[in-house]
Amino acid sequence: MKANPFQSHLLSNMKYMWLFIVSFTMIIIIILNSQVFIFKLWTKDVYSDQIKQRIDLTYWRFNYTDPDDLDDILSLKKPNYLKTYKNPCWHEALYGSHSSNIKFVLRCLPYFYLIGADKCGTTDLFLRLLKHPEIIKTKAYFSKETMWWAWTRFGYSVFTRGLSPTHFLGYLKIFNSAITQIQARNDPEDYHQCIIGDGSPNALWDFTGWNKIPQNHGLTLPKYLTPHCIHHLTPDAKLIIILRNPIDRLFSDFLFVREKHKAFKPSQRVRSRENFHVQVVNATNNLKKCIHKNSLKYCLFNKIFHLDSFLRFEVGFYSVYLKEWFKVFPRNQFYILRSEDYRENMKKHIKNIFKFLNLTKLPESDLNKIKVGKLINTRRKDVKHVKPMFNKTRKLLKDLYQPFNNELAVLLKNDKYRWET
Known about the structure:
Number of helices: 14
Strand order of the largest sheet: 4-3-5-6
CATH architecture: 3-Layer(aba) Sandwich
Order of helices and strands: HEEEHHHEHEHHHHHEHHHH
CATH topology: Rossmann fold
Low-confidence stretches: 34-61
Structural class: alpha/beta
Oligomer: single chain
Helix content: 40-55%
CATH class: Alpha Beta
Number of strands: 6
Number of domains: 1
Mean pLDDT: 85
């Protein structure tokens, strides 16, 4: 039976219509997918403009082959810090299972560091600085010490090594609670004025992890130290240092540290001026033996030497360490004071440090409240029975430290740092 000419024409047109519909649908799908792709790229570019940097998921994550591998800080790219934050903060992009699932997390590093020295009044000073409303407390020990730059990132502690290292992310997490407050507190122009600090007093002097910094591998003396690592990430960091007569500092440290660390034998834990004298003699003899074969810097920067001494007398060589910091940071980024001057005029120095940190000026009444109260972390009642050190011990330490005190006075252009009286 012959097909109706009309039916044949209709069937032919339907074929073309279906072909048109399929082609049109495919074109629409292609266009829509292209728009989605373009939109994703556009939104990523917009985010890049907003945060000034596209930070990959691997920004602070290192390729660890072993959990005890150390972070290579000097290989990190310095973040482009947000201009609306006074504190060095940046947005980090975290990607989900799909590339379009982007979550931005605010990360921050300290605006300032109180880097030392131990038993010089760092705790009292730092806790009084925290009373300024623009300095936010962190989850650091005593709201002050992370011990990360000198110790925990290398798996060290006082008189201890071989611990599992704390990685960079662990350091950043210490500041998470403070970051929430920094983020929430802003002025009408959306500028975030609040800051955080790290008050680890061992950062000034303990460079014993230098041989674990990858850029120092194969060297007999370090090329890169803690100052280089901090400067690499926060070159504008403010640095505060409070120093004390190294002789008095050592005796105070002897009474403070010795009582609580299992590294000491029972006989070494005795807190007396007799035991202090014995330990000073041993430590000075060990130093003489070490520098007979090596340089002073090699000995002071050597973890084994620190562990063998059982007395942190190496802290008092202030000029040796300060010269390393001055090689990296300009002098105007330091505020340096003596413990003796801080005790004599606390209000003056706190006021000056607030100015140094570019914080909002406080009324005199607020400054008076901040200086009120006894000094924190001074000698406790259970060691007040210990008599002052022997004169012969003081003379031995004066002979040891005086050349370096003189060097420090020249370095800081202030004869008070000779501690001659």
